[in-house]
Structure formats: C-alpha cells, structure tokens
Amino acid sequence: MEQSFDFSSYNSIKRLSEDELTALWNRYLSDKKDKHARDEIIVQYIYLVRYAVGRVKVSLPATISIEDIAGYGVEGLINAVERFSPQKNTRFETYALIRIRGAIIDKIRAQDFLPRSIRKKIKEIKQASEILKQELGRTPTSSEIANYLDMDPEKVNQIISEDITITSIYEKRGTSDDSMEIIDTIEDSTKLNPQERMEEQNIKTDLQKALQRLPERERVLMVLYYQENMTMKEIGETLGMSESRVCQLHAQAIMKLKNILNENRSSRLQKAIV
What we know:
Layout: H1 18-30, H2 35-44, H3 46-57, H4 66-83, H5 92-111, H6 116-136, H7 142-149, H8 153-167, H9 194-212, H10 216-227, H11 232-239, H12 243-273
Helix pairs in contact: 1-2, 2-4, 3-4, 4-5, 6-7, 6-8, 7-8, 8-12, 9-12, 10-12, 11-12
C-alpha cells in the first residue's frame, strides 16, 4: 500500500459499522497474508494519522513538511495493523496512536533538522544549566545561563526553544516500540491493574502539581499551547507580547517542569527505599 494519504479525501471514505469492522479484523487476523483486508483496515483508521499530525504540526519548524509527517504516520499505522494482537488487552486505537507517534518522532529525530553548530550550543547550555543548578540549588534562569556562557540571553532562549520544539512534546518512555506522550497511557484505563492505575494517576498528579508551581503567565502559556493548540504567534497576540518572548517563556517553563518532575520522581524513589 502506498505510504501516503490525501486527508482531504477522508470524508469520502465509507465508514464501516462496528460489526463490519469486527468482521474485517477477524478476516485479517485469521490470514495475515490477506493484504486487501489489511489495506481496508488501514483506510478505516487513517483518521488516527490525521489526529496525530494535527497534534504535532503546530510545534514543528517550517523545514519539516506536513506531507512528510503524514507519510511517517502512515508507516506507523501500517506497522500497528500488522503487529496488533487482541491478546494485548489494549484498544487498537490506543496501540496505533503509540505506533504512529513513535514513527513520526523517530523519523524526525533520525533526520536531525538542527545544524551541528546549534547542537553544540545546546550541549553547552545543558552543561552550564547543570553546573549552575548545583551551585545555586535551583533551576537557573536563561539570563544566568547566558551570563555563565557569555552569550546573549535572547540567543540562549532561541537555541533552547529550537531544541524543545523537536523533543519536548514527545517525551519517550521505554523503547521506540512503546514511545508515547508523557501524559498519555498505553493501555485502556479500564483494563489497568491497581498498581498500573496508581502509577498512571501519579504521573497525572505530578504534572498537575508541577504546572501549579509555574508562574501564572507561564502556566497560562502552557495551557494555550498544549491544550488549545495555539501557535506561539497566536499566544503572543492573546497575551500582548512578542512571539520571541513567548518562545522564551515556553523554554523556561519546559525546563522548570522537567526539573520539578525529576525532583518528584527522585523523592518518591527515596521514600520507597527508606
């Protein structure tokens, strides 16, 4: 099957009923060589690719085309259909989204759209951040990092934002096969055992608490960006600030959230050991 799809034609697809879709799955699962059945299933779930592309496209640089992202997503969907097993106790939609997102981010990371010079600066900034964190006993501000490296603060924020653009939304846990967004869950929540349900709740609780510890302006920015899917420019217009300033605040907020979440995990681990 061609690994691309014209999303504009999605509305013309004949949607199967639940019984028809179940029958189609049974037909394919009984004979994995039935490529026609496989392709029919892929078409029925192509909306998952459109959903995943819609979630990621607003946060990626213009150098990455939507067509490429969609192509990566279709590859992930094909892989999901071919490898899915009902015995996994996971809804196919949940399993497929993990595969689709994983395929997209793996391809993006493999291509590395950032120049080598920027990668070098990112490494220097991260090293400086860790050193200052040890010295100050807290997360350093971008201005403090800039002073330490004798760089322009605006440049530091720009570099941090470019790095975060590629990596922050798709934090990966486990192998590439199990890649997922940090606030998503792999399995259907109705099928989680008590321990897994508790771990899921801990993640959501930690994230909510971490967001509450952010300054109000940064907290509002995160909500507008990740929940309302607004662009940096739109957020700037809403909050009355420049797009570059929004990028600065976004970079600062991500750094703070990561440090807060890491502190929470370390604290929980220490309590478990004691």
